[in-house]
Write a structure and sequence with these properties.
454 residues; mainly alpha; 2 domains; 17 helices; 83% helix; 0% strand
């Protein structure tokens, strides 16, 4: 009798994992496609500006790092709304879902507009802060000012997409974002080459396509019955709900600030190692990006399904989502790592004609190829924690690893006279330690989902 019960339980477990795998793939695939197509179109966008000359590239690059930081700030609200909405969806609590949708609109209106105003005010000062060459400061300031006009729409795109992803719709955000990226490329061609507007044309192309994406995402968001609410509710906030959002959002914002600052310091240290080394380093990072983007797609799907499982109070489903997503990502990233190892040399040649840069960059890519599975594990664990709303753990581990291993390690190896290979070992060690830290904490603290012990 016990053998029969065990057999039935095993069958249920297998069928449960299969159902989770199907749901995970259905949700992750559109997110992965969006990430890949958006990256490819961004490469095209960068190349179109690059054809204007070094001054144009320098003008646009002046605001690249500040924009990383600025665009990362709304991500905290995005994660908070995705986490709480997916949990409410799992509980079948439509009232809370509508309140969270209204909260998202308030974030867009107030946070988006405040962020826009700050960026417009600092636009004349930014090129000087970034130590841009005097001859490009005026154009760099104008570029940043124009792009910043659409920041509220960027926040809208991010927040409303997360609301839809939380209710298991990743296809709509994919379609909207890919369409906006295609529009950006078309407007670049029109304004840069046909109208001869230079970098200001590129800025207007970005601003208009961002406004288009944010507007269409809002319209799609309003078509979802689970999220539709009377617009007057935007101005009737709930203090308790906002506090719950902030508890999740603030650590995510802090994590992004710590990460962005770390990347800036890391790049600055490598840039002092010489032009060829920095070129190989920068191009290798760009070339590697497309191989780890699938992990981010699975992270989005994992966060949504984890939140839904918590809302349903379904411990088995939670465990199935966690294990299936980790195994799926590990296998995918092992495959990507093998691919990256063998295509490293031709991949570098797509970005540069310098043989020295190609040889060094290919060597760096072959080294980091072995780290791809750890990177995948790291981002999926982030998705698990984000789905539960336990974002402080990610902040602590990210801060300690980024600054204690990557930054300190890089400073030490450069001081000791080592080269960029050893610098990349520090970067890889950082990713491995993040993966191990998040895994160990998650396995040692089964209460991360706020389930009561069985």
């Amino acid at each position: 009798m016990s053998n029969l019960k065990e057999k039935i339980d095993n069958e249920k477990s297998r069928s449960g994992k299969l159902a989770v795998l199907i749901s995970l793939v259905q949700l992750a695939l559109p997110a992965i496609v969006q990430q890949l197509l958006s990256s490819i179109l961004q490469y095209v966008d960068t190349a179109m500006v690059g054809h204007l000359g070094e001054a144009a590239t320098a003008t646009v690059s002046t605001s690249t790092t500040p924009n990383w930081l600025i665009h990362s700030l709304p991500w905290g609200f995005t994660i908070a709304i995705l986490s709480l909405t997916s949990q409410a969806y799992g509980r079948g609590d439509r009232e809370e879902m509508k309140k969270l949708a209204a909260m998202g609109c308030r974030v867009v209106l107030f946070f988006g507009l405040i962020l826009t105003a700050i960026c417009l005010l600092i636009s004349p000062l930014l090129p000087r802060w970034m130590q841009a060459a005097p001859e490009i400061r005026e154009e760099a300031s104008a570029y940043f000012f124009i792009v910043s006009l659409s920041l509220a729409f960027f926040v809208a795109n991010s927040v409303f997409a997360s609301s839809m992803q939380a209710i298991k719709d990743t296809r709509t955000p994919m379609i909207v974002n890919v369409s906006a990226n295609v529009l950006n490329v078309f407007l670049n061609w029109l304004m840069i080459y046909r109208f001869g507007m230079g970098t200001r044309g590129a800025a207007w192309a970005t601003a208009v396509s961002t406004a288009f994406g944010g507007t269409v995402m809002f319209l799609a968001f309003r078509r979802k019955p689970e999220l539709r609410f009377p617009l007057r509710e935007i101005f009737k906030g709930s203090g308790d709900l906002f506090r719950r959002v902030l508890v999740i959002a603030i650590p995510v914002m802090a994590t992004n600030i710590v990460s962005c600052m770390g990347y800036v310091v890391f790049a600055g240290m490598v840039s002092g190692m010489g032009v060829t080394i920095f070129a190989a380093h920068s191009i290798a990072l760009t070339a590697e990006e497309i191989f780890y983007l699938p992990g981010y797609g699975i992270r989005t799907a994992t966060s949504a399904l984890i939140g839904i499982a918590i809302g349903e109070k379904n411990r088995q489903k939670f465990n199935d989502v966690r294990s299936v997503s980790l195994w799926l990502t590990t296998l995918l990233m092992v495959f990507n790592g093998v691919m990256l190892y063998f295509v490293a040399n031709p991949l570098m040649r797509l970005f540069t004609n310098s043989e020295d840069v190609v040889v060094l960059g290919a060597k760096l890519l072959r080294i980091v190829a072995f780290c791809e599975p750890f990177f995948g594990i790291m981002v999926v664990w982030e998705g698990i924690y984000y789905g539960t709303g336990r974002t402080r753990v990610v902040f602590i581990i990210e801060s300690l690893s980024m600054w204690g291993i990557r930054i300190l390690g890089t400073w030490l190896v450069i001081r000791a006279g080592y080269g960029v290979i050893e610098v990349w070992y520090c970067m890889i060690a950082d990713n491995i330690m993040k993966a191990l830290g998040l895994t160990i904490y998650g396995l040692r603290h089964p209460d991360i989902a706020n389930f009561r012990p069985d």
